[in-house]
Amino acid sequence: MNTIASIRRDCSVKGWDGYSADPISEQVLENAEKIQDALPSGFELFATGRNSVQFEQNKTISRAFTNVMTEKYIEIEVFSDKVVALQSEKSDTPDGLYVRRETSESITFNDLDKCIKYLPVLLMYY
Which residue in 14, 44, 73, 110 is deepest, having the highest Cβ count within 10 Å? Predict the structure, then answer.
């Protein structure tokens, strides 16, 4: 599993991804540390080729007696100057023949402190 320390070590040179990605900046990593402190455990962390890091979590919920599976996904991408949060949910039957509901929402924060204050609200519906 990736950590901020491992990303700091492994993604500090141009082309760290095997292509031409720029190094992940120290500002991105500092912002990610602040976001990580506000998140519950269970999020995976990835470096991206867009000079950002991304926290992700997937859940599958099976509703008793309804035969409906709900897949939930949340992604929080941290840049040097903004944070983008994406949340999606898809509910369907196990055979995949009937989609009951599919939603996706995205929100961008240009203020890190406001993002951190909003995270509990975002996670409450996750």
Answer: 73
Please, are residues 19 and 49 in contact by the beta-carbon 8 Å criterion? Answer: yes
Residue-wise pLDDT tens digits, 103-122: 667 788 888 888 888 888 87
> Do 48 and 37 meet the contact criterion of CB atoms below 8 Å apart?
no
State if pTM tops 0.90: no
What is the identity of the amino acid at 9? R
How far is residue 102's CA from residue 85's CA, in Å, rounded to a whole number? 17
Query: For residue 102, what are the contacts with CB-CB under 8 A and spacing of at least 6?
Result: 88, 89, 90, 91
The DSSP 8-state label assigned to residue 25 in this structure reads P
Q: Rounded to 5 degrees, what are φ and ψ at 91?
A: -120, 135
